[in-house]
Design brief:
With 296 residues, this protein is α/β, with parallel strands linked by helices. The protein is 35% helix and 20% strand. The strands form two sheets. It has an eight-stranded mixed sheet, with helices on both faces. A two-stranded antiparallel sheet has the order 1-2.
Length: 296
Amino acid sequence: MQSRPAELGRSIEGVGRVIPRSSVRRGFADTPMGQVHYREAGAGKGPVLVMLHASPGSSKQLETVMLALASNRRVIAPDTPGNGDTPPLPDGPPTIYTLAAALLDFLDAMGLYQVDLYGSHTGADIAAEVAVSTPHRVRRLIQDGAGIFSADESAEFLEHYAHPFPPDLEGAYLQRAFTFCRDQFFFFPWYARDRAHRRDGGFTSAEKLHEWVLEVLKASTTYHHNYRAAFAYPSAERLKLVTVPTLAVATENDPLGPATEAIVPEMQDAIYRGLPPADLPTYLPAFVSSIDEFLS
């Protein structure tokens, strides 16, 4: 169990009632591209921290770190289009550029002009593009495992990594989605199930895996589009154009960690912090202290 700062047990004023600071609230924002579902925690008068989740899944997978970071700030995490409870963009499969534009629409709908922006994996690409295209909207940028791939890797992942799980009357799609999520803990890429591609890390609980699979199944026929957008995005070139202060982090066993660390010297105003594996009890305190220090 994570240790929780004392501040997380306090309350904040809600609309007509008191909401525990330790709770995650949920809502929908109306944007020109449709409704966006989001999760929110904490409060404060300082810059809002907006967090973008990795693929696949939704902001549900960020709840633990949201609460840990919400002791002295407001934290908001939307489900990216086509994931979780946010419908896909109306104009067909997205690119990172259209996903970044959709995020700006969400910020406008939430009345947020300038924010601190965090992204993990696919979310890191979206966050980076917002920082490049509209640097005045991002005070500080956090890249957690930037998706930087060679041309060969991108081509392979586009062909093999993520495909939809259309429902079938036998329920076989449920097993395929479960295996897809489960095997990401054991292999990278998940479909290369051999010793050479075995990941060095722990597993998760049955409950957490269940939650993750459910979030993926909510978008079983659309989740893969954001993956494909990330694999096609020239993240190394775009990250070199980021001008806002940037913190790059990655766990020791994140497959995207080495590339994330390597790109930092080529960026204009960036630092790198390595983190313990996410299955260790030292991970969450290290994650929170790194971000708190950077955002202070």
